[in-house]
Amino acid sequence: MAKPIAEVDCSDGAPLPDALLTATTPVVLRGLVAHWPMVRAARESQQAADAYLRRFYRDATVMAMHGAPEIDGRIFYNDDLSGFNFSMQQVRFDAVLDALRAHQGDARPPTLYVGSTTIDACLPGFRAENDVTLGERDALASIWVGNRTRIPAHYDLPDNLACVAAGRRRFTLFPPEQLANLYIGPLDLTPAGQAVSLVDLAAPDLQRYPRFATAWAHAQQAELAAGDAIFIPSMWWHHIEALDSFNVLVNYWWRQSPAYMDTPATTLLHALLTMRDLPPAQRQAWQEIFRHYVFESDGSEAAHIPEAARHVLAPLDDAGARMLRAHLLNRMKR
Question: Does the predicted TM-score (pTM) go above 0.85?
Fold first, then answer.
């Protein structure tokens, strides 16, 4: 068994403190959204939850994943990692609800999954009755709907508050330092945008992935019911399993960095292009340069340069970010 994730009772409806929303370790928030009308409908029945969602539907289309019953809900690659074990289709949201209803009683249904869909675009008015106050944070609110699915372990750059609105979900989390033990797949061909672990948590193949045993020793896990939520800090690897025939998740993403900052994943890809295959001594020299200018930066690295002459070493702001981005685009033309 994985270690349990720390829990806090949030059923009193009190605002979430900043200390929790800036934490660097995960926490389960029991009862945080138990008062939502969506949750009350889901606790009544799948039919009631389905009817509640349809109240807000206004002819929007969504990207839906469809997989054969044989994949058992695992959103993943095909056998040789040249593609995926599901198809993507743009369909009406109510058609997804119809399909979930049609397969509700199947012992082994096809996999149906709508991920990361902006709530305000798909279900306008839903957040007026079902929302979480996050202070001054400009969070992106998304909805995830499907049947029994398994989403491989992956990380997200933003902090994540995930609220279970219908069904039950099992969250298995790994700290960022377990990267090497999770056997991550391709960086540029991914099931849903983020690189994922190739290990099947339902049946780990320790002969093929022996270091996963170490990752599992650091895993944390919790099962959430409708009304519960979990805070997943930035960069924590998380595997999510939906356990019922009808599941709805609402999540909020926000970054603790200015909007003008690009994703570091872009830097990683550029580093693969420019540094990974350098001779070892040169890679070590660049490691020192990055340590000096980036990972241990405290402002002193440019203190000996007059302020007006610091250019990209000056504190970054929106205008500076635009100039630096234009400079990079120009440098990359070849």
Answer: yes
